[in-house]
Amino acid sequence: MPELPEVETTCRGISPFTLGYSIESIIIRQPKLRWPVNPELGAILSGQTIINVKRRAKYLLLQMPIGDLMIHLGMSGSLSIVEEQTVGKHDHLDICLSNGKIIRFNDPRRFGSVIFNQQGDSHPLLIKLGIEPLTDEFDGNYLHHQAIGKNTPIKSFIMNNHIVVGVGNIYAQESLFLSGIHPKRAAGKVSLVRMKHLVQIIKQVLAEAIEAGGSSLKDFTGADGKPGYFQQKLHVYGRQTKNCLKCHKPLKQVVISQRSTVYCAQCQR
DNA sequence: ATCGGGACCTGCTTGC
DNA sequence: TGCAAGCAGGTCCCGA
Fold first, then answer.
1. CA within 20 to 30 Å of A153's CA: A67, A92, A167, A242, which one?
2. A245: domain range?
3. Which protein residues have a C-beta closer than 7 A to any atom of strand B?
4. Residue A225 confidence (pLDDT)
5. Does the nearest atom of strand C lie within 7 Å of A72's Cβ?
6. Could you give the maximum distance between any two Cα atoms of chain A, in Å?
7. What are the residues whose beta carbons fall under 8 Å from the beta carbon of A20, sequence distance 6 or more?
8. Does residue A15 lie in a domain region?
9. Does residue A227 register a pLDDT over 80?
10. Which residues contact A93 (CB under 8 A, 6 or more apart)?
């Protein structure tokens, strides 16, 4: 379940094996992903050199002179670097490189996507995205300003990609617990001071997860290590049957925007 | 304009 | 035991 830290870790992990090499071919075994994979992808991109590998929100961008290959991991996708051709279940797509390595896209639930983008930041899937959480632009003033008049729960608000990208269900829950804000509180009713605190926590939690992911990542050629967030101490996510780590009272679970949400009624107001 | 909910998909867990 | 329902998760899109 890739959250932003895992996408960032993947980005850093594949870089050494891809940067500066060219695409020789693309094998599409299953084109039915979130968006249909263009059957001409291989023809369009063969011979193209990968000149940059970056992340925007939860998209991985393999940048080439004629455009970017945008990869989204959805909820169950992953990339690995392999050399052999033996394919496993859900290995939907291979990007074969000039160095003999293969970037393999595996995604059991097929919520991910592989799209060729020649429009840069103005691509329809990118144009409406909010700011990156780990930039200076994302601060308490920004979040507070965006929340003016909004009745939507603060949890839904920080998970809204139009406001800030990359805060998924796990980190929304964790961040709200650590900043002591009730997940159902109306976004417009969170004070500036608390918004500043929340922003600081979000940055910290994401950065720690990236660090954990990075340190667990050896060579990216196998399924080594778990996603960064499983190496972190999770305070509320998945702990609905347990007690609060701060006050030791039982945690509560509710559904907000169809998403399971665990919180402490005592510590979060 | 704002917000909630449906849809997409598979695998693991839980319950009858 | 076997099968079905429930749930997880990201994000686009539509309807109220």
1. A242
2. 140-263
3. A 32, 34, 76, 89-90, 108-111, 149-153, 156, 257-258
4. 47
5. yes
6. 60
7. A49, A50, A51
8. yes
9. no
10. A26, A27, A28, A29, A30, A37, A104, A105, A114
